[in-house]
Sequence to fold (306 residues):
Amino acid sequence: MKGLWIPGAMPVELILVEVFALILFLAGNYFLKKIYGRGVSKFFQGVLLILAAYIIFKFIIFPPIPAALLITYMGLITLVVFLLLSTTDESWEEFKDPIIKTLEGRTKGFKTARTITFALLPVLAGLGTYNFMKPNFQEPIELRTVHPAPPASIQVHNKEMVLQEAKSPFRVDENGKYEENVENKYLKANPYEDNGVPYLKSIREGGEIFFQNCHFCHGDNLNGAGMFAFAFNPIPANFTDPGTIAQLQETFVFWRVSKGGIGLPREGFPWASAMPPWEKHLTTEEMWKVVEFEYWHTGYYPRTWE
Fold:
């Protein structure tokens, strides 16, 4: 209903819509009394008022209000309707009369209404439970930071690591010396050959650890399409996407692996990530090997700190 609203005038327009709905209700009740000699019963007045409020808040006003706020508003409106209907004993008796007659099944019509009501209640409860529990694959509305700013340092297995200074102990050449672009030499090499190259040995071991622990979510091809991936929202990271590890420093990836989702800052929505803190399950060396394997397998290079 976006087209009905003028930016900045929503409160006034909402009041006008409510007044218009009230006029329609009063006019309808007046004509019913004039034609049939009786208007809408108190029970159905309450139902119509609550239903009209829900339609206005859910489908008419723009921008749409959050679900939690909608529940709050509907709770308040329901309370107000009950207060209005119970202002006098006569009004309250008229309101509850059809409810009591339906529960007692005083006539054939009320018995039918009771049967239908009792049949629908468990069905509606089941549908509500299903809709509440089923996974939602839509992107979250909130502005989640996918790659939040890392801390300056972290504690892993009782040792402090300064992220801008730390280096992978397995990114080394044949002589065991650190070499930033060592994977250039071994991108097409087979890490399962017994060639004695330290870097390839760490890649092989990192791959074994990955397929024992990580591929269930991140996938056999590291593309974020593991067998459990689509049970999560958001789904696990796709490492073959040039927007993931190719844009990150090795120590950033190590931080994310070691601390998991629970270690994310607030802007990263730690409650939305199912990745466990792998420092609870793997050694520091094993986590580094997994990081090296991820870069080697995808063919990407880690960014350097600038």
